[in-house]
Write a structure and sequence with these properties.
2 domains, about 5% helix, mainly beta, SH3 type barrels
Amino acid sequence: MREGEARIRSIREHGGRLLVAFAGIDDATAAKALAGATLYVEKSAIPLSAGEYLDDDLIGCNVFGADGRPYGKVERVEHLPSSDMLVVNGRMIPMVAAIVREIDLARKRITVDPPEGLLSDG
């Protein structure tokens, strides 16, 4: 392991937070040295199941209605208790199968079928 690198030994959820144990960090004093550290992982090392996406891959995608109407680009992804939300032009689109019909990352295109009023101005 190079300086500044750490290998994850285990991860588990506790009280809505992830608890991460690192190889070679075996006591509270050593763990305190990592407080406030930013962790990075190679994108290719992140396992994703079918239908799972990284926020970074969705941001910047063009969003179109099933009728071809352009709605804008994904500005960010919000993770709310009800569902994840795509934020497009300041409006939230729930990431549920009934609304988000297709995500084509290769084309940076998302097709949605929003219910009446979800994305309209009036």
